Amino acid sequence: MLSKHSLPVKAMKVSLEKTVEQTAAKHAASQGGLLPCLHEIQSELGYIPNTHLENIATAFSLSTAEVHGVVSFYHDFRTSPSAPQSIQICCAEACQASGSRELEAGVADVLGVEFDETHPTDNYRLERVYCLGNCACGPSVRINDEVYGRVELASLPQLVTEALQP
Amino acid sequence: MTITVYISQDTTALAVGADRVATAFVQAAHNAEFSYTLVRNGSRGAFGLEPLIEIEMGVQGRLAFGPVSVSDVPSLVSAITDGEYDCHPNYLGPVNTIPWLENQTRITFKRCGEGDPTDLANYRALGGYRGLDRALTLSPQAIVDEIKVSGLRGRGGAAFPTGIKWQTVLDAQGEQKYIVCNADEGDSGTFADRLLMEADPYQLIEGMTISGLAVGATKGFIYLRSEYPRAQKMLEKAIDVAVAEGYLGADLCGSGQRFELEVRMGAGSYICGEETALLNSLEGKRGVVRAKPPLPAIEGLFGKPTVVNNVLTLASVSSILADGGAEYARHGVDRSKGTMPLQLAGNIKNGGLIEVPFGVSLNKVINEWGGGTRSGRPVRAVQVGGPLGSYLSSDQLDVPLTYEVLAELGGMLGHGGIVVFDDTVDMAKQAHFAMDFCAKESCGKCTPCRIGAVRGREVLDRVVDSTASSNDLILLRDLCETMEQASLCAMGGLTPLPVKSAMDNFPEDFGVTDNPYEVAV
Fold this sequence. Notes:
The complex is a heterodimer of chains A (about 170) and B (about 525). Chain A has helices at about 10-30, 35-45, 55-60, 65-75, 95, 100-110, 155-165; strands at about 85-90, 115-120, 125-130, 140-145, 145-150. With about 170 residues, chain A is α+β, with helices and mostly antiparallel strands. In chain A, strands 2-3-1-4-5 form a 5-stranded mixed sheet, with helices on one face. In chain A, α3 packs across α4. Chain A is elongated and about 50 Å long. Chain B has 4 domains: about 5-100, Glutaredoxin, CATH 3.40.30.10; about 120-330, 3-Layer(aba) Sandwich (Rossmann fold); about 330-420, Roll (Ubiquitin-like (UB roll)), CATH 3.10.20.600; about 425-520, Up-down Bundle (de novo design (two linked rop proteins)). Chain B has 22 helices and 16 strands. Chain B has helices spanning about 10-15, 20-30, 75-80, 100, 120-125, 130-135, 140-150, 160-170, 190-200, 200-215, 230-245, 275-280, 310-325, 325-330, 360-370, 405-410, 425-440, 445-465, 470-485, 490-495, 495-505, 515-520; strands at about 5, 35-40, 55, 60-65, 90-95, 180-185, 220-225, 260-265, 305-310, 330-335, 335, 340-345, 350-355, 380-385, 390-395, 415-420. Chain B has a 5-stranded mixed sheet, with helices on one face. Chain B has a 5-stranded mixed sheet with strand order 13-12-16-14-15. A 4-stranded parallel sheet of chain B has the order 8-7-6-9, with helices on both faces. In chain B, α10 (about 200-215) crosses α13 (about 310-325) and α17 (about 425-440) runs antiparallel to α21. Chain B starts with a strand and ends with a helix.
């Protein structure tokens, strides 16, 4: 479980609800405020709890189904807790041209984690991404908010060790 | 003598080690008791030379060293302190004489890499805000006319004449109008928007402000993809400074005119680069494509008249207003006026951003600027115009890059992305990826795209597995035709371009050497 959320269960529920309600109230008045609201909730909690979509819907005068529709449309939003760190391998054309297909095929073996899963010990999630805008120096890998270029499969484990926060 | 050292903070420069080089430089300079000012500038886009260090001292101007690795730094610092910098192996000469940069025609990207991107005084010193100064003296119609004279067409990919779009919004009735900047640069192989936002954010802010004055809009949104966190930081900082200095807000430069600007983040959806899906997303909805009409210019964001333009289109506006539309139209050929920022990417030795007048040959870009493939193997395929653009074969590269010529070839110039593949590429896999990506990213609104892409992927599964029959390829052509003719937006409508061009230009990768149409007959 995430250390950030290692509160007693009851306190956690109260704090979840409070965060969701306060964030929703803050954004409900601004035009098109739902996406900024969802981004902020996810950045605070690590995910957007399905159990609290109703609170968001109430604040925005929407139905819960409408909020669910928005949350489920966008790849960025998650409805279950996730590892606090992420490694994204760019799998789009420009990176394919410079070797990302090999990276994509071999990454699970060298890192010991499958795509869309959390590493058993290192607390990060491995994901695919489609373009990081580093297309002249691919293949690109993003570790948290930093992008790395010309990444080779052989050097990836060391890069990951250096770049992940302890 | 004051010495200024420039090391870029651009995403790609950092991705190849600019921060490590900067740290090493600070350490080496400290050890050598070398005194200087460090500026973290944007990138000039010569990514083959990054990490690039520029050193400005006295009359020599700005001297360039690149690509610099951490281990090069100590010898570089001693070469500078000893005055023998021109013998250093990384020495490239004065930055403005590097052929890669010198042979470009930089208008939109002229300031990129010159200084600290959020230094407003520096922006002004480099000619920034001259366009807004002039726009504030003109009537809205006169601003729109200037854009029409420039011949500027949308740089996002669709190439619609910007002046006509603005005229429609200017003529539309409405208390509230909006300017929306499409900064959802999702096309693989493109990074010009990102580079500009990270290196020269005020130019975009200025262009949007001018656009607001032209059509009578008081509020603008930049819709930025979430994959660009560095651009977000840069834009938000620049907006704060512009507000503080009176270049945004309720009283633009004391003129009494209002324009406010906000950055809104996307959430990882490719389709939100389509303008109507983008508008829905900005409204806080699912990024589903809207049917047109009504055009966004008439009923756009929140149902109000809205200009939706790409980053480069809006950025170009500031120099068009500063120097006049006629000056801009002097560049280019035919109905492709001005300059086009091309982005050279993929398997390429010297990739990066190349701003040139329309009409430069693709071969020249790949071989002269790019220096051929990074792997050193022969070029086999080039995808021009992003994931929805055609795959050209190596014998089709001797073409001038204009909207018209690419369209004649059955392709498109799009947002100017050029992705080079060497001879190890399997084009059936590339076609498979195009359908797979469309299936994943389709908004689901229209059937040809939502279901056609899935069926297309299934056929290509068989092609990649070598279990396809020639009937499969006939089916694939049929699916492509349906998607092209009947999809609501460009995503479904153009996904067949890479698929069909891969089949046409590289039939040997699809398990049949005969023409599938002949088989059908």
